[in-house]
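Section 5: illustrative case.
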């Protein structure tokens, strides 16, 4: 009780989470990718950004339970599309999703420059 395999504890008392679907990597119910029926996950896939959403209808079918799309647009266009997509699905996670997409886009740019 009070622990899972995704929990990461910091030396200074901060608790993080490494679970998929957690946009801020924060150990809290609101951002949890395991506890919520609707979750959003944003990752880099090559030179593109992959946005995955958990489908609440197909919980018992793991192969169909995640709907994902890949966006190869430029920086601000990706942020706009992510904001629109998440605002219709989980409006409370819109700011977190845009921040995560921005960080992923920045890491892609840094990798391309090197």
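Designed sequence:
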């Amino acid at each position: 009780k009070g622990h899972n395999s995704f929990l990461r504890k910091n030396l200074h008392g901060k608790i993080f989470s490494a679970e998929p679907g957690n946009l801020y990597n924060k150990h809290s119910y609101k951002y949890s990718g395991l506890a919520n029926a609707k979750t959003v996950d944003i990752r880099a896939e090559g030179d593109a950004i992959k946005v995955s959403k958990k489908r609440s209808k197909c919980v018992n079918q793991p192969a169909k339970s995640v709907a994902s799309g890949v966006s190869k647009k430029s920086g601000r266009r990706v942020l706009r599309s992510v904001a629109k997509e998440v605002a219709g699905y989980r409006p409370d996670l819109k700011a977190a999703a845009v921040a995560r997409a921005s960080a992923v886009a920045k890491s892609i740019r840094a990798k391309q420059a090197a």
